[in-house]
Amino acid sequence: MKLAFFLSAACLLQCLYSVTSDAAxxxxxxxxxxxxxxxxxxxxxxxxxxxxxxxxxxxxxxxGIRFENGYCSASTCTPTRYSMLTGTYAFRRxxxxxAPPNAPAIIKPGTETVASILKNGGYATGxxxxxxxxxxxxxxxxxxxxxxxxxLEIGFDSCFLLPTTNDRVPQVYVQxxxxxxxxxxxxxxxxxxxxxxxxxxxITNRNSLKLDWSHGHNNTIHNGISRIGFYTGGKAxxxxxxxxxxxxxxxxxxxxxxxxxxxxxxxFSSHDIHVPRMPHERFQGISQLGLRGDAILEFDWCVGELMxxxxxxxxxxxxxxxxxxxxxxxLDDGYKDEAIExxxxxxxxxxxTGGKYSVYEGGTRTPFITRWKGKIxxxxxxxxxxxxxxxxxxxxxxxxxxxxxxxxxxxxxxxAFLGGPxxxxxxxxxxxxxxxxxxxxxRSGKWKLHRYDRKKARNVVVETSLANTPVPKxxxxxxxxxxxEKNNVIDxxxxxxxxxxxxxxxxxxxxxxx
Length: 514
Ligand code: NG6
Ligand code: CA
Description:
- The protein has 514 residues and is of the alpha/beta class.
- 22% of the residues lie in helices and 18% in strands.
- Helix 2 packs across helix 6 (290-312).
- It is globular.
- Residues 37-38, 76-77, 98, 132, 165, 167, 215-217, 228, 274-275, 327, 333-334 line the site of 2-acetamido-2-deoxy-6-O-sulfo-beta-D-galactopyranose (NG6).
- This is Arylsulfatase A.
């Protein structure tokens, strides 16, 4: 493996020794996964952004490893989160695309997850923030009753959630199995159709909105913002969009304080910078990039707060922090928040083409940083790593084994996560969009194969707006020579293309990578 930094021979040996001896010595790290929502490769100053400065994340990167080939599994939220938690590609399981407001639990009880694996290894486990993996049995969430199954049935000891994503109804918190602060005399109803002809929505009451919609997102209005889906009731339980980040930090701090003396796994699942981008008033207008940039700064603030808490509790040297994103960037994702108008020279996808919804690199190649103070030698790595590898890698670091039949596509990259000088990342990785349409990306070394069974590529041009562009069924790119995937070289390298097609087909059809 090539690393962009150099270590002395003594340090190499020491580093290798300590990586392999952690689990054996019982010196398992706590694990904090910080997942941003829709954050692009080029959105952070440590990844080259110059129109915005993200000092807290930059510091995290300077104290750890910044990966230049870090990926999430999919270019939308639900399949990436499914793959991240289960360690299995989402395309193996139907029904793992973007979840609607009333979706039932997508990860069934009994499925092993990063949380259940670490819990079996003696960890306290918690998730705070955006869930978007469904709640409840076959009929969906029982908003006024017990919201299960959910995170607690797949290995989390506690949860404090935004149930779906905040452009979908309802705007309430879920704590463990219940909607928080729900008044039984004002039951919460959530549905796909308007509950009555008089129910105000984003079309009938458009003039009253504080943030106008551009496509979709014109159903029930809450806090001056119309959403996807309808709801009534639950008034006392509803939150303001502006307060989400502060709440995530408050609840995460409680979790960290409570579990400071035992091994823990915290999944901090930010809603920033997903639409509706409505950060707290103190962040509004502070970036040059409009609300999208303000939300990036709110996310950066959250990272700083979490680091402060770890420091205060003397946990920085006992905790592996991993920062990642659930998919690449999008500018207009349904609200008129001036993301396009204020973009200037900022490139949210960095040097890459595509973004959210796309299997071009911009859809899944995203910020990926690991930090474990005192353990990781800071640097930059070009190893290919993915959020799907958390299961096997964290299991290894925790000194626990992956249960038989679990996490079929997760690789133990713990050595790469810790910057081990001889560590190898992945040889190959399957990328998907929202799933279910036969669209795949396949990275193998420097090569990238695109497969479009429907011969359409989504969102090739993330900088302006969404586009469905006609494409051939297969394309091949040389990422070393052409990271922006502009020159399809499939005719020049037919043998490479055939090899990659065969490997991809076999990975899809064999049902597992390992
Ligand atoms: C799309 C929404 C988009 C966003 C996305 C999910 C419309 C027109 N578009 O269907 O706004 O919510 O779903 O984003 O409704 S994700 O990051 O959670 O996958
Ligand atoms: Ca997302």
